[in-house]
Design brief:
56% of the residues lie in helices and 6% in strands. The protein is mostly helical and 585 residues long.
């Protein structure tokens, strides 16, 4: 009996069709007696350890995100979304930010509603001006408004952590689930962007949720396929860059419910009905998922304005060729299709990028892989690679590869062809999906050495993440010099997105009180609100610029002309949040 084998219980991997034969522990006491009761008590105690670990990991992530949400001033994009959310609440108008669908801003609106800021209905201006006026020109407290606007995104980010744990546990058991959740919870990128009132984490997490539900649809299609379609609809109703995932996830829907194997008689070929009816059944289920997705998109627009008025005052670019055909095929409201045209117009602009010290115009296809290499903890990179390799190499796990690796591969390929090299926030699906892939490195049967190695790598990730607290946006791993050196290699939301204006004010009061200050700031905050009274050094002759020169690192990275001369003739004396450098002149 000591060597008897039995099938793992219907939980974790076994529950989703990846059953593993597990040897019975030698020496386990038989039924009955004090020894059996003691063993049962030990198992009950161990059962509590897993929920405790999950809560602990998510609690540290929540603490990091709440701290960032309380301490950071508005980033470049946040006032646009917060101002639009306030317009949704008070005016039920789709007039602002049409390039992004409403669902993510409706999420933010839940927090804005609690803050209940005053909206000046008489104010006219573009979407950025509306947000800044709401925060700084309408008698509201921007600290309070921004904190409440960020809280719903924080809550959703934590819920996506549970999805990561559940997906990974389905594939690799409880140990794999905890490894995946640890990678997710300590990811500097996910903490940084999960603490902001932006759309990147909600969109990426919705795609992940859809893929997980489709994996489960292999067993329970009636419940999981419509839910997966709704999650897919949520993704494309939050951000349009989720659209490339639509054909992938609909194909995975068909794969998940393909009934051919179920119609195979024992020891024979599949029956005629199964052989010829399988495509029709799969297509029907894919249509169910697509219908649910379309319904969610329509519902998000109707929730803002039941009359679906096209009130956007700005010009909508005209598109031609394949782009026009794609827009015309979308079964979405006219406002959504207008947003697609605006996005295509933005893609045609000559954006400026910065990578490894070089400024360039246009896009480089390798920008996102290079940025991810810089901004991902080294232990996480190792576990991503190991997990992806196991997922593809181990036969019993290979069936999960399309669900775990397919969506991020397609989304990354699409993002790499974008003209906007602005940061890893365009690839936040990578730390989500690849955390799940990493779990397979410790799947049952991989051995104790694999579990030990994974534990060591997770510990290294945790140390690297905690060391950057609370400055998560400018994180880079130790191979590239850490957060203090990120500005030398990347810019924009990778480093400096305007988040440290309040910290700059604190630094000036504590260390540089009474000094003449010159400021070049990249962001949406209003310096005077925080007590920073500074002039722009680019508006006066260089010989008149004396005192303290504060420059956002994104502006310094791409500095030309007068600003470049001023920086070259100054001496760096201080820095704030690894995103603003102070120079002495």
């Amino acid at each position: 009996m000591a060597h008897e084998r039995h099938t793992a219980p219907a939980s974790g991997a076994a529950r989703t069709g990846l059953a593993v034969a597990v040897p019975r522990t030698p020496g386990r006491p038989g039924p009955g007696g004090a020894a059996a009761r003691g063993w049962a008590g030990l198992r009950r105690q161990r059962r509590w350890l897993v929920p405790f670990a999950v809560v602990l990991l998510l609690a540290q992530m929540a603490a990091a995100m709440v701290t960032a949400a309380r301490e950071q001033t508005p980033t470049v994009d946040e006032p646009v979304y917060v101002g639009t959310a306030a317009v949704y609440l008070h005016q039920h108008s789709l007039a602002y930010n049409p390039e992004h669908p409403p669902l993510g801003k409706l999420l933010i609106a839940a927090g804005v509603a609690v803050a209940d800021p005053r909206l000046d209905a008489s104010f006219t201006g573009d979407q950025g001006a509306v947000g800044r006026h709401l925060l700084y020109g309408s008698g509201n407290d921007p600290w309070r408004v921004m904190f409440w606007a960020r809280l719903p995104v924080i809550a959703l980010t934590l819920l996506f952590g549970l999805v990561v744990f559940a997906f990974a546990r389905d594939l690799a058991g409880t140990a794999g689930g905890l490894v995946a959740l640890a990678l997710y919870a300590f990811s500097p990128d996910l903490i940084a962007h999960g603490s902001l009132a932006t759309l990147d984490v909600p969109a990426a997490g919705s795609v992940l949720t859809s893929a997980w539900l489709l994996w489960r649809a292999r067993r329970r299609p009636g419940l999981c396929v419509p839910s997966a379609g709704a999650a897919l609809g949520a993704a494309v109703a939050i951000k349009m860059n989720a659209l490339p995932a639509v054909p992938v996830l609909l194909a995975l829907t068909a794969l998940a419910v393909w009934p051919a194997r179920r119609g195979r008689p024992p020891g024979g070929e599949p029956g005629r009905a199964a052989r010829f009816g399988a495509p029709a059944v799969a297509a029907a289920w894919a249509a169910v998922a697509a219908g649910a997705a379309v319904a969610v998109v329509w519902a998000s627009y109707l929730a803002v304005d039941p009359r679906l008025r096209r009130t956007y005052p700005g010009p909508v670019p005209t598109v031609h060729g394949m782009r026009a055909a794609l827009v015309g095929l979308m079964p979405f409201p006219a406002a959504y299709r207008d947003g697609m045209r605006i996005q295509f117009g933005l893609e045609d602009r000559p954006w400026q990028g910065f990578l490894f010290g070089h400024v360039y115009t246009g896009a480089r296809w390798y920008y996102l892989p290079a940025a991810l290499l810089v901004k991902t903890p080294l232990g996480m990179l190792a576990l991503w690679a190991a997990g992806a390799g196991v997922l593809l190499a181990v036969r019993r796990l290979r069936r999960a590869a399309p669900y775990v690796l397919g969506p991020p591969a397609v989304l990354l390929a699409a993002a790499m062809h974008s003209s906007r090299d602005f940061g890893t926030r365009y690839a936040l699906f990578m730390p989500m999906f690849l955390a799940v892939a990493a779990a397979t490195a410790v799947a049952p049967g991989r051995g104790r050495r694999a579990l030990t190695a994974a534990g060591v790598l997770v510990a290294l990730v945790a140390v690297s993440s905690v060391r950057t607290y609370p400055f998560y946006l400018p994180y880079s791993n130790e191979a590239f010099g850490g957060p203090a050196k990120t500005r030398l290699r990347l810019h924009d939301s990778n480093v400096d997105w305007g988040q440290d204006l309040g910290r700059l004010a604190d630094r000036l009061r504590s260390r540089h009180r009474g000094e003449r200050v010159w400021l070049v700031y990249k962001g949406s905050g209003v310096p005077s609100f925080y007590g920073i009274h500074a002039a722009d050094p680019r508006t006066v002759p260089p010989q008149r610029v004396h005192g303290l020169l504060a420059v956002s690192d994104s502006a310094a990275a791409k500095a030309t002309g007068r600003l470049a001369q001023l920086i070259a003739s100054s001496r760096a004396v201080d820095e704030v949040g690894h995103s603003i450098t102070l120079y002495r002149r």
